[in-house]
Design the sequence.
């Protein structure tokens, strides 16, 4: 597929402002005059400037470009970096056209194991990100980081307010699991959270993330893709969205979540949406978001490829229980010390899934209690 027809090239000053050979600018292949070879890349930066899904309209300047101006001046992390910047996506004639344009582009990148990093535009653009996974012919999981849960039902509501509902209700369904992270409970209607619980999906309030951010890691590790709304950050840390909110994640917490996402062997796309540069003060939010992307890239290049649970990379633990099931099987990665839980369907023993879990889940089982993650996964297996 000739992806070049969907993109506008970048201004050279966005990439070449630094003369240092140690910054990311020296390691990216950008779309300036020639479209880069995305098939040979590990990661592909895609700028978005589509705001028809937002009631607030488009900002005066391009958010992805503002983030680029900081991102490419950051020092390269450890290891090699194979990064291309495809430029800025040309919006379709309609918003639906843009969604389907994203679907085609991301699906092509997935086919060649190139991870797209989507930056800019309103949060509903993750619907296009979601649609790309319909081409994989398997069930997928995803996670959203947002202060609100975008499940609006009212007629005439802008897409950025109900895109999550559209994904969860999509037919034919190819969704296995969903996780909602860092929402603020006083911004979410109780019936919305009740609906997610009824569907056996996991949620983690911003206070729970703050109390122990490690609780978020298994939820992000199960995701095939992550959708991150800038509005999940508190305004003082990232004044680049509207309306402002004094509460939310700190920059440090957001960067940690981005690292968790990048380090997930299974994750194949990452979206960072909602940044409005016209609300940014002195480029503070742009720098914060650029640093988040740096942590995502760094996490990616620290992946361990631990997926063969029968290999010597894992320690297997069997825990006896007094009821049903009589036994639970856990796996611990020797190098990463990450934990996994084997869930066998009670209805059909041929259906089995190994899902991310925490050390606390293992300790709970060792005390004779079924971990909540086993209960939720059992319900999803049907």
Sequence:
């Amino acid at each position: 597929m000739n992806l070049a027809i969907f993109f506008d090239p970048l201004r050279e000053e966005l990439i070449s402002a630094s003369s240092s050979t140690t910054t990311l600018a020296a390691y990216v292949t950008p779309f300036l005059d020639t479209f880069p070879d995305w098939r040979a890349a590990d990661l592909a930066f895609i700028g978005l400037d589509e705001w028809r899904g937002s009631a607030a309209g488009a900002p005066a300047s391009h958010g992805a470009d503002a983030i680029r101006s900081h991102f490419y001046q950051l020092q390269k992390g450890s290891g090699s970096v194979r990064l291309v910047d495809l430029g800025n996506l040309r919006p379709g004639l309609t918003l639906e056209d843009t969604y389907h344009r994203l679907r085609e582009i991301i699906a092509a990148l997935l086919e060649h194991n190139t991870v797209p990093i989507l930056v800019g535009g309103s949060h509903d653009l993750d619907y296009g990100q979601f649609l790309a996974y319909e081409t994989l012919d398997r069930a997928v999981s995803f996670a959203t980081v947002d202060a609100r849960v975008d499940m609006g039902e009212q007629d005439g509501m802008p897409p950025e307010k109900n895109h999550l509902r559209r994904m969860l209700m999509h037919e034919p369904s190819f969704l296995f699991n969903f996780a909602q992270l860092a929402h603020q409970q006083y911004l979410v209607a109780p019936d919305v959270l009740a609906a997610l619980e009824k569907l056996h999906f996991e949620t983690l309030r911003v206070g729970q993330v703050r109390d122990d951010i490690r609780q978020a890691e298994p939820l992000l590790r199960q995701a095939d893709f992550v959708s991150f709304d800038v509005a999940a950050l508190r305004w003082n840390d990232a004044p680049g969205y509207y309306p402002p909110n004094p509460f939310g994640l700190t920059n440090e917490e957001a960067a940690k979540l981005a690292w968790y996402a990048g380090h997930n062997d299974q994750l194949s796309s990452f979206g960072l949406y909602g940044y409005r540069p016209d609300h940014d003060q002195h480029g503070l939010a742009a720098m914060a978001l650029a640093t988040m992307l740096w942590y995502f890239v760094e996490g990616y290049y620290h992946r361990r490829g631990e997926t063969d649970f029968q290999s010597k990379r894992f320690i297997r633990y069997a825990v006896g229980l007094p009821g049903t099931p009589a036994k639970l099987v856990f796996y611990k990665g020797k190098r990463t010390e990450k934990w996994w839980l084997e869930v066998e369907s009670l209805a059909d023993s041929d259906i089995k899934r190994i899902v991310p879990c925490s050390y606390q889940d293992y300790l709970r089982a060792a005390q004779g209690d079924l971990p909540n993650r086993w209960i939720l996964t059992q319900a999803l297996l049907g």
